[in-house]
Amino acid sequence: MNRLDVKPRIRGAVDVLGLLERGRTLSAPVLRKAVERLAAPMDTIAAYHFGWIDAAGNPSDGDGGKALRSALALISAEAAGAPPEAGVTGAVAVELVHNFSLLHDDFMDGDEQRRHRDTVWKVHGPAQAILVGDALLALAGEVLLELGTVDATRATRRLNTATRKLIDGQAQDMSFEQRDRATVAECLEMEGNKTGALLACAISIGAVLGGADDATADALERYGYHLGLAFQAVDDLLGIWGTPEQTGKQAWSDLKQRKKSLPVCAALEAGGPAAERLAALLAADAAYAGAAGGAPDEVFGEAEFALRAALIEEAGGRAWTAAEARRQYDAALAALDEIHLPEEVREQLTALADFVVVRRR
């Protein structure tokens, strides 16, 4: 996938990979300790999901994800004038909720690969994936409330609201799969819930734990919400045009799941011959799914998905989504202008926004 048309505002001044590694390094021991509370075999299944062990139970250095949310929670604490360590519990809580959603989503979406290895439901079965996901969600509230402070209660309230919106977004996403189309507005609402809400919580939760007032936390949430939409727009591009080496998933993964992602919705709304042909194919899929009780993915070869991707691009869906990523990027940075921030924190948040919109995986 080509880089999006974004000129980084911070050129070489911030070590983004260092920020991500700091988030991972400071939060990982606390995250591991929380997961150790789970009853067997949920503890080892969760450890497999996080990449700490392989399917046989041997130690592993598997890819545990980008740690973007953890990095944001630590920077969030610094935005309130607190040390980054003040945001660690918030980082862990957000990571637990995020991974609860991944465990459930992988099963519901039928994804067999995540981070270049088999998903939990594929290795341990759907029932264990659901149980471990539920356990991680319960742990998230537990670790926050154990802090026993007023600010921890405020943080928990924000996390619970974000979790509810995340679940709303997943329900909306699933409902779209049974329709032949969804509007761009509906898609943005769904993605704002499914992705934007938790990133918004990540970038505000550390500030709340660090004693920030609601006005500061709300502005940071707006940054995170728009950053989440930019992140998801890029993810939607990768979900169609990304390679398995980039994404860790099958080629054409979103098309195979009949997802109404932004490129698809934008292409359908654009009109024209390519949009009409794409709409006809999706309508036929919806009719088939209704009659057969599932998607007809097994009857399609790679050429069929390549055709659909080409139609989306011809109708303008790819270009529109890249432009939307840029619009959401701009909106995220505009939210930072609403509040006073230490200059170093502002530069870090700007650099992370740059990272999100030009990433390749």
Description:
By secondary structure, the protein is an all-alpha fold. It has a single domain, classed as Farnesyl Diphosphate Synthase (Orthogonal Bundle), CATH 1.10.600. It is 71% helix and 1% strand. It has 16 helices and 2 strands. The chain has a two-stranded antiparallel sheet. A hairpin with a 2-residue loop joins strand 1 (113-114) and strand 2 (117-118). Helix 3 (68-79) runs antiparallel to helix 4 and helix 9 (214-241) runs antiparallel to helix 15 (317-336).
Show the helix and strand layout.
Layout: H1 16-35, H2 42-50, H3 68-79, H4 88-109, E1 113-114, E2 117-118, H5 120-124, H6 126-145, H7 150-176, H8 184-209, H9 214-241, H10 244-247, H11 253-256, H12 262-270, H13 273-292, H14 302-314, H15 317-336, H16 343-358
Antiparallel strand pairs: 1-2
Shape: globular
Question: Beta-strand level of the residues, as a percent range?
Answer: under 5%
- The CATH architecture term is Orthogonal Bundle
Tell me the name of the CATH class: Mainly Alpha
Domain count: the total is: 1
H/E element order: HHHHEEHHHHHHHHHHHH
Put the structure in a nutshell.
By secondary structure, the chain is mainly alpha-helical.
Labels describing this entry:
361 residues, Farnesyl Diphosphate Synthase, two-stranded antiparallel ribbon, globular
